[in-house]
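hiii, so i know i said id send this last week but things got crazy w the move. better late than never?? heres the sequnce for the chain we talked about at the cafe, plus the structure i predicted for it. fair warning i was half asleep when i ran it
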Amino acid sequence: MKVIRIIDRISDIILEIALIVALLIGGYSLWDSKQVYDAADASNYATFHPTENDTVSFDELRRINPEVFAWLTVNDTPIDYPVAQADDNSKYINTNAEGQYTLSGAIFLDYRNSPSFDDFNSIFYGHHMEQKMMFGSLSDFVEQAYFDSHPYGNLFFDGKDHGLEFFALILTDAYDDDLLSPAITGEDQRKYYLNRLLERASLKRDIPVSEKDQLVLLSTCTSEITNGRYVLVGKISEQLHLQERPAPVVRRLDVSNKYANMLTSLPVLVWIALAAALIFLLLRSDRGKDRKNNNKNTAGK
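okay and structure toks below
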C-alpha cells in the first residue's frame, strides 16, 4: 500500500507541475506576442515624424540609426513608418528603425535601390502582421472598395514631402523576378516592366503612368499562395496628399477582457516567480498530507 501511495503522489505532483508549466507557457506566449505587437506599433515613432518645416525629431532618430533616411505614409491606414536601408535585405527583417532586435522588423527599401528614389521602380518591404501593423493592412487593398478609397500617400525624403498615387494591386510570389527586380534601367525595359505590371494587376486605377515616372512597390507576404506576396504599386507625384496626423494611439493585444491585458503586461520573471511559488506550495501541501497520513497510521497502530 505504501508503494501505491508513493506512486499516486508522484503522479499527482507530475500532473500539478505539468499544469503549472502549461500556465507558464501560455502566459509567456501572451506576453511575448504583446511585446512583438507593441514594438511594431507605428505610434512608437509618431514623435519622430518629419515635416518640411520641422525635421528636428527625425534627425534625432537618424542619429540613433543613421540607416533611417525616409518616411512612408499610406493615407488613412496604419502604414506610417520611418524607412531604413541596409547593405542587404536581411537586416531589417528582425531589426527595428532604432537599430534594435525585434521580430517585427522595420519598413525598409531594397538595398539595390537609390535612397534618392531616382530609380524607375523602388521596392519597400515590411512584415504582414496582424492588427494591421507594419504592412499588415496591405491585405485590405484586395477589396475593391478599400482600394478605391485609399489612393494616396506620402513619401518624405531629402527634406521634402512627395505625393504618392497608388494605381495597382498585384498578387504574386517571392520569386517573381519580372516584378520584384528593383532599379529597372533602359527605356525598353521600363516599358516592358510597366506593361507586365499593368497586365498582372488584379485591381488598378486609371491614372496616367509612363516609363518616365518613378514607381514605388510596397511588398509583403500573404498565405493565399505559396511564398505569396501582396504588392501595392504607386508612383511618386508632384501633387501632395498630406493627411492630418491623429494623436498616437497605444494598441493592445486583442484579448477578451481587461484582465487578460493585465496578464500580458507581466514581465517574464514574474511568470517564472509565480510558477515557482505554485510548485513550492503544492509540494509543501503534499508533504503536509504525507505527514498527516503517517500520523494517522502511527496512531492506528
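btw The radius of gyration is 27 Å. thought thatd interest u
miss u guys!!
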